[in-house]
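Comment thread on ticket #2218

A.B. wrote:
> Attaching the input chain for the structure job we discussed in standup.
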Amino acid sequence: MKCLHTILEEHTLYLAGDPKGKKANLERADLRGADLRGANLYGANLEGANLTIANLEGANLRGANLSNANLIGSYLPGANLTGANLTGADLVEANLLGADLKGANLTGAKGI
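C.D. wrote:
> Ran it. Output below, let me know if you need it in another format.
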């Protein structure tokens, strides 16, 4: 897998419509403890990703696929999760203070 920094850069280009860009696919990625503060992961695929104790403060996860993701103890204050797919996600002890969950699918999510 490419380094996370490169994936985030390519995703930013993708969102800007740059042909050099590529949509972020972090399916089943091990992102334990990752510092993703303010990251723009709009529409990214994080299905089954391990985001245990990751810092996602202020991250843009609008429309992202976080189904079956492990978010145990993750830090998400102010994160934009509008329309995100959190089906089956594990949110036990996740800090969602001020997170925007409008339209998010939380079917089968744990810890809510």
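A.B. wrote:
> Thanks. Noting for the ticket: Residues 4 and 26 are 9 Å apart (CA to CA).
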